[in-house]
What we know:
3-stranded antiparallel sheet, single chain, 3 helices, 40% helix
Amino acid sequence: MTHTQRSIAVTRREFAVPVDPAYGAYHVAVSKAWQDANRSYRDDHQLRGDNAPLPDNAISFWPGDTEIVISYETEKPAAPSVDDVARLLAAHDHLGGRLSRPYAHLAVAEQQHYADAARNVLDFASAATPAHT
């Protein structure tokens, strides 16, 4: 049995409100940051309208001595690794009759050929996919 490697990209969005040591954070600034975080979370998770409920753990408040940070995190789907794509390409060739053995039974040089092709596929896919800002 073999293993698969994956990458998961996590983005943490923070909305920082300064804290005055003598007076604390002003409610107007905290309210504005909360509204911005709420709107941003809804946009990132495609939640339409202000009435759609958020999960209880969607947005967090982190009080500190110099600022209050309101934040949330998003994950991108697991990115396929070179190994994942190489195995898929070999399986495609095997099922199509162009390869007589499954990937795991190929010589290292043959597996390297599929890994090179997989890198090309991943490079092409990343160039063709617009970046999400």
